[in-house]
Design goal:
The chain contains four helices and no strands. By secondary structure, it is mainly alpha-helical.
Length: 99
């Protein structure tokens, strides 16, 4: 049973690494093109949120939230809160000092 759990965790981590590579390109594209389409950015953040257990994905998520903050503060704040509710029970990874 423990071995099965280890395999599942390993698979999850590999999937997160693959997703991180894909989303890095998308986040870079959004920022480089200075996209202001809040719906497109929101959809991207929606999908990224599922992988924010991974530190690299969290960095990308935070980067895109910071970018969104200059476009739509309320929407950015809702994504910060969504992260906190899902992954950051202690408020340690997305605190105001780190944003």
């Amino acid at each position: 049973m423990i071995e099965e759990i280890k395999k599942l965790i390993e698979s999850r981590n590999q999937l997160a690494q693959q997703a991180c590579g894909q989303y890095a390109a998308l986040v870079n594209s959004i920022i480089a093109s200075q996209t202001t389409d809040v719906n497109h950015i929101s959809l991207t953040l929606d999908y990224m949120l599922d992988f924010c257990f991974d530190d690299q994905m969290l960095l990308l998520y935070r980067r895109l939230c910071r970018y969104l903050y200059d476009i739509d503060k309320e929407t950015a704040a809702s994504y910060i809160n969504a992260y906190r509710e899902m992954w950051d029970e202690n408020g340690e990874n997305f605190g105001d000092k780190n944003f």
